[in-house]
Amino acid sequence: MESDKFLITPMTQKMELKAGESYTGTIKVANPADATREFSFVAEVSPYGVVGEDYVADLKTKSNRSMIADWITLEDANGTLEPNGTANIKYTITVPEDAPAGAQYAAIVVSQSKDEAKKSGMNVDNIVEIASIIYGEVEGETVMDGHILENEVPGFSTTAPIMVSAKFDNHGNVYDSAMITIAAKNNITGEVYLPTENNEGYYEELILPDTTRAVERNVEWLPFLGIVHIEQSINYNGEVSKVEKDVIICPVWFMVVAVIVVVALVALITRLVIRHRRTKAPLEI
Q1: CA separation for the pair 244, 229 (Å, rounded)
Q2: What is the pTM of this model?
Q3: Lower Cβ count inside 10 Å, N or C end of the chain?
Q4: Residue 259 and residue 28: Cα distance in Å, rounded?
Q5: Which residues 6+ apart lie within 8 Å of 40 measured at CB?
Q6: E-assigned strand segments in 97-219
């Protein structure tokens, strides 16, 4: 079985915590039904953070927001699963009495056992890890100070899908979610692309304390050529922003063809005009 085929759930958890209290939870590990062999796993707790505006995960750097990693203990952190087998990894969070108020996050990282990888001839540096992120918030003096910095919809695109973007910051000590709604319809036919009946077009983006986050998202199912009306609405920390534009979609190849056609027509018309003038020219005596 390939090491990247195992699954864990849930991928994220949000928890409200109190200093001096203990909390328990469970992570489920699954070896898919189509696996060809048993899967031995190991789980461990690591700090969690993000780097840069595109939120690259950092599972190594400790910070004052990842102290919760030291508060978590695991049970049943090792196991072996037959195909279609599942196992539960139980964890306990023991919040110290002097825990600071505000956001805390850590990761429970599950990976293939290194011993199993070595037996199968795999380079242990290539072992796939999947993390379940715990977002905790310790009760106390908390402040949410976040703002919408950008809300962008392009006016022109040479390709579909079209990319829309937004940017947020958070200078408080708790995390919050930005709620984004994208609506898109064809200006000519009236066909609605987003939102869909199964809620595609509605998105939630988590903004962590002391960070700036840039979010980009493709607007799918659009025609390769035409004019579509796109609207991006954002609600974040009490702020509301809405941007809507009629976006022209025109592929590069179509523009090249159009230019060639126009040049050819101009050349043809010019030749016809010259020929016409020659036929009308007076005869010299």
Answers
A1: 7
A2: 0.83
A3: C
A4: 58
A5: 78, 79, 80, 81, 112, 113, 115, 116
A6: 102-112, 129-138, 146-152, 156-157, 162-170, 176-186, 192-194, 202-207, 211-219
CA distance 171 to 143: 9
DSSP state of 283: P
Q: State CA 9 to chain mean position distance.
A: 18
Closest CA to 140 of 107, 95, 171: 95
Largest separation between any pair of C-alpha atoms in the chain: 116
C-beta of residue 40 within 8 angstroms of C-beta of residue 112:
yes
Q: What is the DSSP letter of 33?
A: T
Give residues with Cβ within 8 angstroms of 212, minimum separation 6.
Answer: 53, 149, 167, 168, 169, 170
pLDDT tens across 232-257, in order? 999 999 999 999 999 999 998 888 88
Q: What is the pLDDT of residues 163-180, one digit of tens each?
A: 999 999 999 999 999 999
